[in-house]
Amino acid sequence: MNNKTWRCKALVVAMGLAALNGGLALADEKQQSSKSAVNTDRNAETPADSSPSRMVKTPGAPDMTEADFQRGTEIYLQRCVACHGAQREGATGKPLTPDITQARGEAALNAFITYGTAGVHNWGTSGVLTKQEISIMSRFIMHKPPAAPSQDTGNTTP
Fold it and tell me: Is the dihedral of CA 82, 61, 124, 23 positive or negative?
């Protein structure tokens, strides 16, 4: 790794750590103040929403379209579930529950997903995920996880 690459990665890590340690407080306050009367029903459309896209809403998380939420679910199941668990409760990787991820903020989550850490793959700089997919994932993990698939096998015999 050349010296310029090393310095760039060090700067990104430092920025991410600063964001985690409160550097995003102002941005979080602004985001919170812009969220008024959040509807907790995932499938509800707000009266002001004139688009045909239905929105997914979780208190404290940025609203997402159902299409983006579905894409986040797909990416999570393909890339993240093995380490973070089906309900994001943690396994070999740390938990990614909304209380934790919302406290980190979207910018810090974008940095973690893009550049990775000692235990997290660098999904963005490796080219595995696009900037749009990283944005979707940052917002997705701030929401309540979707219900786990049913384990019903269809077998009705006792």
Answer: negative
pLDDT, tens digit, for every residue of 121-149?
A: 899 999 999 999 999 999 999 999 988 76
Q: Which residue has the tokens 């979207």?
A: 106
The span from the CA of 99 to the CA of 85, in Å, is 16
Which tokens in the block code for residue 129?
């995920």
- Tokens of residue 142, six digits: 């701030």
Q: Can you tell me the distance from the alpha carbon of 141 to that of 102, in angstroms, rounded to the nearest whole number?
A: 8
What is the tens place of the pLDDT at every residue in 36-55? Answer: 333 334 333 333 444 557 99
pTM of the model: 0.63
* Distance in angstroms (rounded) separating the CA atoms of residues 80 and 72: 10
